[in-house]
Each structure stands twice: as C-alpha cells, then as structure tokens.
Specification:
The protein is an alpha+beta fold. It has a domain at 66-237. 23% of the residues lie in helices and 33% in strands. It has five helices and 14 strands. The chain has helices at residues 22-27, 59-64, 66-85, 102-118, 130-137; strands spanning 14-18, 31-35, 45-48, 53-58, 96-101, 147-151, 164-170, 176-183, 186-192, 201-202, 204-211, 214-223, 230-237, 247-248. Strands 3-2-7-8-9-6-10 form a seven-stranded mixed beta sheet. Strands 5-12-11-13-14 form a five-stranded mixed beta sheet. Helix 3 (66-85) packs across helix 4 and helix 4 crosses helix 5 (130-137). The longest helix has 20 residues, at 66-85. It is elongated, with a radius of gyration of 18 Å. The structure holds zinc ion. Zinc ion (ZN) binds at residues 2, 4-5, 10, 57-58, 60-61.
C-alpha cells in the first residue's frame, strides 16, 4: 500500500520502488550496504538491488518524487567524476564547480528514510513522526527547524568510494530518528528531530575537494532556498592514494 495514501490522490497502480535511487544502485554495481542497527554497533549487510525493492508507493506518488532521484544521481556521478579526476594515474585537470540542489538531496534522503522504514528489511520500522515525514516529503508541510541535512565529517572504516551505505539511527525509545547515508564516501546525516553536535554541518555550502600534489580544486556547491547555515567542508586526497575515501581535515 502506498505510504503517501494519507495525502489522497493515489493512483491504482503500485510501483515496485527501489528505496534508493535506481540509477545509483546500478552505478555502484547493483547492490547497497544496509544496516538497521544502532550506529556503529550493528551489522551491515550488502543487499542486491532486487532485494531492495518494496511496493511502497503508488505510481503517481512515485513519479512525483522522481526529480529527487535524478538529483541524487547527479550527486553520485559528480563525486565519481571528482574521484576519477584525482586518481594517481589521471592527467591533472583544471578546477571545476558543480552546483546541486541541496533541498532536493535533503528530500531524497527523507524519501530513503521513509522507504527504508517501509521496506520491512530493517530491525524496526518505527519512524518518528511518520505522518509529518510524509507531508514534508511531498511539500505539504514545512521542514521543522530541527530537521534536515547535515554533513557528517567523520572517518568511517566502512566507507568505500564507489559505493553507497545507509545506517538508520535509533533513539533510546527504539524509534528511528535519522539516517546516515554514505554516498561515495561522503557521510550525510538526515535528522527528523534529534541529535546535533558540534561536528555536524547543517545545510552546508558544499565541499571543496583538493589533491595534495595538484593545484586544481573540485567544488561541489549545494544551493539552498536561503543562505547555507554552515560553510564549505574541505576534503583532501593524500599521495599516494591507497584506495581510501577523501579524508576530511
Ligand atoms: Zn500514493
């Protein structure tokens, strides 16, 4: 049954919806790492794309969100391009700038969070304020001030550059309050109401990628409806590169 049925206007057809972006799953080889357990304490399983399918949205509501999937795909492709440009064997390139819609990325993560909770594959499907989450996702309600996307500059041994991993965040009440998505090694946190700390960069301006031995910078800028709340994060590629993700400093 469509999880947005409370908004009305459902179509009769239920789509088989990948709760992560289909093109991202394909780009990373058709699978994703998914963890439903507590942050840093749980198991992570790699699931094939076909297993990450749930009948959770009707065609109409699924189609309404397709621009979010497209923007998430652009994010992943941009990060892959930057990664390739800084490879040891790559011919040095000039600086470049990519501008992405931060609000769309933020809503895409909310879509992933709601979808993960509805997929039946997690330890718990209990999401805080589910109705409000759905209303915000479809633009029927404003984002509460304590919700939203932060960059999470935290080194994590599970990162692999050419991949994607999701971890749901559980509160002491056992309910899901957020999602950490590692997109090509870049950790993003979507909170629906709990948890900030000094390391989090809420609504960041973007990320500057640099290389220890080259002058060019690759800039990923995030556009928000108002000014970004926090500045740019810097990641640098060390030399020689051993296959680890960009290291924040
Ligand atoms: Zn629907």
């Amino acid at each position: 049954m469509c999880y947005a049925r409370g908004l009305g206007d459902c179509s009769h057809q239920i789509s088989r919806e990948h709760y992560t972006t289909r093109n991202i799953l394909i780009a990373m080889g058709g699978s994703a790492e998914v963890s439903g357990l507590r942050w840093l304490k749980g198991e992570t399983r790699r699931l094939p794309a076909d297993a990450i399918v749930a009948k959770i949205l009707c065609d109409r509501h699924n189609s309404a969100l397709s621009p979010l999937d497209a923007e998430a795909g652009r994010l992943f492709e941009t990060l892959r391009e930057f990664d390739a440009a800084f490879a040891d064997t790559a011919v040095p390139t000039s600086s470049s700038l990519a501008v992405l819609n931060g609000s769309d990325i933020e809503r895409w993560l909310l879509k992933c969070l709601i979808g993960a909770a509805h997929s039946g594959g997690l330890e718990t499907s209990s999401l805080r304020e589910l109705d409000r989450c759905v209303a915000v996702l479809f633009g029927e309600a404003d984002w509460p001030s304590t919700w939203g996307l932060s960059l999470f500059p935290h080194r994590d041994s599970e990162h692999s550059y050419n991949g994607i991993a999701f971890m749901t965040m559980l509160g002491s009440d056992g309910r899901i309050w957020g999602l950490v998505a590692s997109i090509a090694g870049i950790p993003l946190l979507l909170s629906v109401g709990i948890g900030t700390n000094d390391r989090l960069r809420f609504h960041p301006g973007g990320i500057v990628f640099s290389h220890a031995k080259r002058d060019a910078e690759k800039v990923l800028a995030l556009a928000w409806p108002t000014d970004p709340t926090s500045g740019f994060l810097s990641f640098t590629r060390s030399v020689p590169y051993g296959g680890e993700p960009f290291s924040p400093f």
